[in-house]
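Lab channel / #folding
Pinned by the channel admin:
"Please post every new chain as: sequence first, then the structure tokens as a reply. Keep commentary short and put observations after the output so the thread stays searchable."

First post following the new format, from NK:
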Amino acid sequence: MFPLKAEHIKKVQLDNGLTVMCLEYHKLPLAHITVMVKRGSERDPAGKEGLADITAEMVTLGTGKRDSQQLALEMEQLGARYSASSDWDASCVEVVGLSEAFPTLMDLVGDMLLQPTFPQEEMKQSQQRRISRLIQQRDQAEVIADEIIVQRLLEGTPYAHPTYGTIPSLGSLSAGDPRSFYRRHYAPEDTVLLAIGDLTPEEIRERAEGLLGGWKTKGKTEDQLPAPQRPTGKRIIAVNRPDLTQSQIREGLLGIKRKDEAYIPFKVMNYIFGGGGFSSRLMQRIRAEKGYTYGISSTFQAGHIAGPFVISTFTPTATTVPIIEEILKVMEELIRGGVRVQELEDAKQFLRGSFPLKLETLGQMTGEILNLELYGIPYDYLSFYPEAIEEVTLEQVNSLASAYLLPEALTIVVVGRAEEFLERLRKWGEVEFVEYSEMTKGCSPPNTSKHASTT
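Reply from TO:
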């Protein structure tokens, strides 16, 4: 659905503070319903990382009227699918089915949202599933590298942990923790219901008001979250894993907030630097010219706080240091020489042309609209995006490169056979050395049964 304009999105607030949004889409007989609570993994208590995510799942695993099997059976009979998860800044429950089943789907959504029972046995099984998955992931060097770079860049904030938690934190959760999180953070004034599909605004509002208008829970006032501090010097972390023949490399800096006025110029700058696939400077230099890797990219996450801006790649052990050297050279060349006119035009053309592809499905439209709502971005962003891309200037891109591509402030994480590159890494400064085995200690499923009693 393109162009998607602000006036296409209908929005109303119920008396209890719950926001109801709808978008008519009559090309397919579908209904895509999403409930977003504006509290996510950033609200996980210390030592209980992963609680927001497991709470979202538990909302779908039993209500006052239906246990998890009954919920699953009714959804299956309707040909519907449903899921729930938590990310930074928000938790979501999503249901997709035929528009003719919309009243019944809304009944199920209302039941899950207002009457979750948080069954002890379901809680125990969810813990065990998640812990088993994390144990399997401990063998994946790329996962370890990703976790370390984010943790170091965002340390000192509640964002400095994986949204899915850790093995110790998941094992420490009690059966009462999801219920406590729900009571503290799930409240109508912080909740948005968005329905997209072969529906009318009137039937969406009426159904939402009938089911959710009586929800009176009040959420707790939350303190302002601390912002991450930008490093003043290089930080290098070498994780020794002797069995690897390739090194996983992450180089990170702090990026920007989602609501930053420079968000769109930053997208253009990142595309030219490392986000543009084969047309990016990193890919051209590191893969096409040097042949050091099969793939390299730069990505950034932007939320309520400045998120991580990370270069990700892998390379044979022998070229670990050379690839880091070349990445630094690309950064310095972009800062000194700036962006070329043709690079800017190519980036603009791609970003303008690919934007409609991000609004092809109901799920994609849902994600874009809720992202705007979550971070307070005007809905006309969706229609003015191509124009905003076109207005980005060389001066803006070069200014952002100078402000954010800071080689002297890099956090560098290398997971690999450290004896082959450790000494050469020290030419950039002190290296924090970590044995991989230390990071995977205790990777056996804890006995979660002792945590399953009601609190």
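NK: The first strand starts at residue 9 and ends at 13.
TO: also worth noting, The domain at 6-212 is CATH 3.30.830.10 (Cytochrome Bc1 Complex; Chain A, domain 1).
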